[in-house]
Write a structure and sequence with these properties.
The chain is mostly beta strands. Among the domains are: 252 residues; 73 residues, Elongation Factor Tu (Ef-tu), domain 3 (Beta Barrel), CATH 2.40.30; 134 residues, Galactose-binding domain-like (Jelly Rolls). It contains 2 helices and 57 strands. The strands form 6 sheets. It has a 28-stranded mixed sheet that branches.
């Protein structure tokens, strides 16, 4: 066991002249190396300032012992005084290499004055493309490769790049394929080769039917021959992922690596992760040094990027991560948190993981992050994505398959106003869209959402809070009308209400909302002055529910408010519903008379205290969970956008004026599809009520 210290400005790993040596654990060289590093010799390596060493062999290197850095130290590409100054280790671009690192690889040191360390396993401009370069991490530390520059957050610049041959990572079938077929036709097979490993998503919402370990035996343009053959038929559009890259980073079975590649808080580093494969981080096994001690491990991310002060945008593109061994907990291919002043972009990400671990998540995004994700395909996971902290992001054109909920645990409630948006995604879950306690600020736009019909769109979420919005989506399960009943205290319920708003589901041109207390939607059958009324049905008998709306207002300008309130026999007469109008000189409450199945009208002239909104709070307490309350005559957007009194529509434009009344001709009347006088007024679109806003 010895310490190898770089001696040449440039040199090959296998060249004797590249190295000086020192005693094991020392950092000052004492003599030229007598021979090149030997595989399995448990030596330590230091690459100094301005030196670039090319790794050009296959072997097991590293001492796995303790040095001047925390944990078990293997390769120190670092800056520390003169001896441990910044150096560069690069993978050969002309011959296949394999590095098994026994212990931690530390890129950067605890020196605050110098920088320049660079781990180079391919860059965007000079990728490892014609050969292969693999790294196998054998470590009992929290990270396999740690990229950290010490305490100087204004000068330190350590870099890490892993870039392989560009190839299509995710594509889809352009022709349906029958069960037991051994050929598939895909949309794009750029740079696919014989023996590449494919993953094919399930034909149903059950992720157990997804295929892994499929090998290519022949490539004829976009027609691919595979082995083994398909287990079940696959339709056109089924996603197919190529998980083979020229650059591979993995752990050996006897290691426990929480973070695969861990990048921490550097302001000026270059971080490029492109067209690479990551495999198997995080294990549950016994520590060889302590045979009687269980080692519980968690994979926080094959790549964990936590560079809060970084001012250079990182590159995450074409990353495939497969988790074949089954750890206690996995947070998939990437954990991106606090990415610094630059927004982060993640593209062409592929993940295949266990579907039975209690906390296995494909992609974790968190911290004070602004992240865009394009074309992420989760072929199998327990949860497909885990947004947390003050994460603000957009997931576009992605395909997420999960055995449990698609969303593992949406945004932390402290991040009020921060939203995760899914655009044009296909989300499939064998349970529900979201399961856990926090349904905070997620928006789904133009998505195809398939969930287990026995569970519905959302699984029971007692005491959840926040807002989930679903716009113009295709929903496979029956439209939901409930969350689990609320079980907290009366005081808590004012802050623990999860509203789910659904706009135009399955192109039905309706809107509905629900939470743990009530379900509400527009009702075109029970109405009086509007095309639709707003109907409520409670979730919990004898438990108060409420819904708040606003109406535009100008300070000091009186506004006329007219409407109607009604409830049915299942609601009961014990506590009739009420409407409270506030933010006026005189706040006003209308309490419905205790008469069922009857419209009760109200009319008030309200003078707002401030320019802005008059608040409209509708409250009710039903005897049964099947009771209904109806509100009519008020514009309650987006449920009710048009209302009319005696055939005159309420004018709702800013600083509006009354339009001239229109008299229908006989021909116009005869062409209107009406059954009563109210419908005639509806068809003629008359206007009335001269309100200022």
């Amino acid at each position: 066991m010895a310490t190898y210290i770089s001696n040449a400005t440039t040199g090959d790993w296998t060249s004797t002249s590249t190295w000086l040596t020192a005693a094991d654990g020392a950092t000052v060289p004492t003599a030229p190396a007598g021979f090149a590093p030997q595989s399995g010799a448990r030596d330590r390596f230091i690459i100094r300032q301005g030196h670039t060493i090319t790794y050009n062999t296959s072997g097991v290197f590293g001492n796995g012992g303790n040095g001047n850095v925390p944990g078990n130290t293997t390769l120190v590409i670092t800056s520390a005084s003169i001896i441990l100054s910044g150096g560069r280790l690069r993978a050969s671009r002309t011959q296949n290499t394999a590095l098994t690192a026994v212990g931690l690889i530390w890129v950067g040191g605890n020196d605050v004055a110098t920088s320049g360390s660079f781990w180079d396993w391919g860059t965007l401009t000079n990728p490892v493309s014609a050969v292969t370069a693999s790294i196998s991490l054998s470590s009992f530390t929290s990270a396999g490769i740690l990229v950290r520059g010490g305490t100087s957050l204004t000068t330190v610049a350590q870099s890490a790049c892993f870039c392989g041959l560009e190839k299509t990572k995710n594509t889809f079938l352009t022709l349906s394929a029958a069960a037991n077929s051994n050929t598939i036709t895909v949309d794009n097979a750029f740079n696919w080769k014989i023996d590449d490993e494919l993953f094919i998503e399930s034909d149903t919402i059950a992720t157990s039917r997804a295929l892994s370990g499929i090998r290519i035996t022949n490539v004829a343009d976009k027609t691919i021959t595979i082995t083994p053959s398909l287990n079940f038929a696959r339709l056109s559009g089924t996603r197919v992922g190529n998980f083979t890259s020229t650059v591979l980073v993995e752990t050996v079975p006897s290691s426990t690596v929480t973070f695969g590649i861990n990048v921490q808080g550097l302001p000026f580093g270059i971080y490029q992760f492109s067209n690479i494969t990551l495999r198997d981080f995080g294990q549950y096994l016994r520590d060889p040094a302590n045979p009687n001690t269980n080692v519980l491990t968690t994979s926080i991310g094959a790549i964990s990027y936590d560079a809060f002060f970084n001012r250079v945008q990182p590159i995450f593109k074409g990353i495939a991560y497969m988790q074949v061994r089954n750890p206690l907990q996995v947070w998939g291919p990437l954990y991106v948190a606090n990415p610094g002043t630059e927004e982060s972009l993640i593209e062409d990400l592929a993940y295949f993981g266990p579907n039975n671990a209690t906390s296995t998540t494909g992609l974790r995004l968190g911290g004070q992050s602004i992240i865009t994700v394009n074309n992420y395909v989760c072929y199998r996971a327990y949860n497909a994505i885990f947004p947390s902290g003050q994460f603000k992001g957009t997931i576009n054109n992605s395909y997420l398959n999960s055995e449990n909920a698609t969303i593992g645990n949406p945004i932390n409630p402290a991040a009020a106003g921060v939203t995760t948006t899914f655009n044009n995604c296909r989300l499939r879950s064998n349970t529900s869209l979201s399961l856990l306690d926090n349904l905070v600020n997620c928006e789904y736009v133009n998505c195809d959402i398939s969930t287990n019909p026995a569970v519905g769109l959302f699984a029971p979420v007692p005491n959840a809070f926040g807002v989930s919005t679903i716009r113009n989506c295709t929903l496979s399960a029956a439209l939901p009308n409930t969350l689990a009943p609320y079980s907290g205290t009366t005081v808590q319920r004012t802050i623990r209400i999860a509203d789910v708003n659904i706009y135009n589901p399955n192109n039905d041109n309706t809107f509905r909302t629900y939470n743990s207390f009530h379900y509400a939607e527009a009702n075109s059958s029970v109405r009086k002055n509007g095309i639709r009324s707003l109907s409520f049905t409670p979730r919990i008998p004898n438990e108060r529910f409420e819904k708040i709306f606003t109406a535009p207002a100008v300070q000091g300008v009186t506004q006329k408010i007219k409407g109607n309130l009604r409830f049915d026999s299942n609601y009961g007469t014990a506590t009739p519903p009420t409407i409270l109008f506030s933010n006026a000189v005189t706040n006003t409450t209308f309490t419905c008379p205790a008469v069922i199945d009857t419209w009760h009208s109200f009319e008030y002239d309200l003078t707002p205290n401030t320019t802005g909104n008059i608040e409209i709070k509708i409250t009710g307490t039903s005897t049964l969970s099947t009771g209904f309350v109806y509100v009519d005559g008020l514009i309650l957007d987006p449920f009710v956008k048009d209302v009319r009194f005696y055939g005159f529509e309420v004018d709702k434009n800013a600083y509006r004026t009354v339009d001239t009344l229109t008299t229908l001709t006989e021909n116009q009347v005869s062409s209107v599809d009406i059954t009563n006088l109210d419908r005639l007024y509806d068809a003629s679109n008359y206007w009335t009520i001269n309100n200022p806003l």
